[in-house]
UniProtKB/TrEMBL annotation:
Belongs to the iron/ascorbate-dependent oxidoreductase family. It is found in: Cytoplasm; Nucleus. One of its GO terms (molecular function) is metal ion binding. Its main location: cytoplasm. InterPro entries: DIOX_N (IPR026992), IPNS-like_FE2OG_OXY (IPR044861), IPNS-like_sf (IPR027443), Oxoglu/Fe-dep_dioxygenase_dom (IPR005123), Plant_2OG-oxidoreductases (IPR050295). Keywords: Cytoplasm, Iron, Metal-binding, Nucleus, Oxidoreductase. Involved in the regulation of shoot development and salicylic acid (SA) homeostasis. Residues 216-319 form the Fe2OG dioxygenase domain. This is Fe2OG dioxygenase domain-containing protein.
Length: 366
């Protein structure tokens, strides 16, 4: 067969996957298409015997009660945060100040968005990484060889008035509910930065980085993981670290998030109403390696759709990311090169976005 005869079929196949997993599933599916089948070592369950001998282990992450931060237990809570960031790169937060209705409304309206006809959702499909709104599928759908079982909606969120007019106008209450959500997560982030700075023994108020973060970038990423007929063959998200300073993750009640802990993938138990907070690459650099930006991935399941909302916070796009000068002295040399944010973003747009290659490349090997 000549290439000209194959091409239309290939193009049609690719188009089918470019429209995303939700679209694929809405048309009925009993098997995972080859495009989504991960090489065996990357799959969630390696072998049958693994499955039989290893009991299912969920990890109970340290739980931070944010209300306690404001009381007499503050120093104890700060130590728990520091230990969590050093050991797991992750912790969960309860009593974080966001009303239950704000987070529930956000999950509900996001569900409704992904239930809109494909034609409505696809209005926001673009490969332009700097677009204020970007709807898409997989991790990097223009680069990924194997696709992930995930569709997403990414919203730039700061400064909000600059971006809000571009956010989806349907469902009709999407903008107002998502705007409230973005604003309240930002407030939570600011409190978190204060606590993190203090846990690193850097004064929270008189600190250049804290000031920059106050005006920093925010992106809200809504992830949609439809039920998958063969969840053992694919991943919702591949192993990755988050590039920013902190990620504040809201999940519905369906589990799926796993983190790499002592070389094993462990599932995080969702706690209703809580947030999962994780250290991003920028915080690992800023803390000069003390806090860890840990690899995590997402599994899918055969029965329940899952929605998560990640709010990624970092420095302004014009900033240089570097170890805090307050953590550097003659005994503590910088472990990472100074890196401007734009270089990070460029890397993200061009890579096969897995593992922690970029952060590794910024390490100074003495
Ligand atoms: C992310 C992420 C985890 C999840 O959006 O970067 O890791 O559970 N999400 O969806
Ligand atoms: Ni992530």
């Amino acid at each position: 067969m000549s290439p000209t005869m194959i091409a239309p079929v290939v193009v049609e196949e690719n188009n089918r996957y470019q429209k995303g997993v939700k679209h694929l599933c809405d048309n009925g599916l009993t098997k995972v298409p080859t495009k989504y089948i991960w090489p065996e070592p990357d799959r969630p369950i390696f072998t049958k015997s693994d499955k039989l001998t290893k009991p299912k282990q969920n990890l109970k992450l340290p739980i931070i009660d944010f209300a306690e931060l404001l009381g007499p237990n503050r120093s104890h809570v700060l130590r728990t945060i520091a230990e969590a960031c050093e050991t797991y790169g992750f912790f969960q937060v309860v009593n974080h100040g966001m009303g239950g209705d704000v987070s529930r409304n956000m999950i509900e309206v996001c569900k409704k968005f992904f239930e809109l006809p494909y034609e409505e959702r696809s209005k926001y499909m673009t490969s332009d990484m700097s677009a204020p709104v970007r709807y898409g599928t997989s991790f990097n759908q223009n680069k990924d060889n194997v696709f992930c079982w995930r569709d997403f909606l990414k919203l730039y969120a700061h400064p909000l008035p600059d971006y809000l007019p571009y956010w989806p106008s349907s469902p009709s209450d999407f903008r107002s509910l998502a705007a409230t959500y973005a604003t309240e997560t930002r407030e939570m982030f600011e409190m978190m930065v204060k606590a993190i700075m203090e846990s690193l023994e850097i004064d929270g108020d008189d600190n250049e980085a804290a000031k920059e973060l106050k005006e920093g970038s925010q992106m809200v990423v809504v992830n949609c993981y439809p039920p998958c007929p063969e969840p053992e063959l694919t991943l919702g998200m591949p192993p990755h670290s988050d590039y920013g300073f902190l990620t504040l993750l809201l999940q519905d009640d369906v589990e799926g998030l796993q983190i790499l802990y002592r070389d094993e993938w462990v599932t995080i138990d969702p706690i209703p109403g809580s947030f999962v907070i994780n250290v991003g690459d920028h915080l690992e650099i800023f803390s000069n390696g003390r806090y860890k930006s840990v690899l995590h991935r997402v599994l899918v399941n055969s029965t329940k759709p899952r929605i998560s909302v990640a709010s990624l916070h970092s420095f302004p796009l014009t900033s240089v990311v570097k170890p805090s000068p307050k953590l550097i002295d003659e005994h503590n040399q910088p472990q990472y090169m100074d890196t401007d944010f734009a270089t990070f973003l460029q890397y993200i747009s061009t890579r096969e976005p897995k593992w922690k290659n970029f952060l590794e490349s910024r390490k100074i090997h003495i």
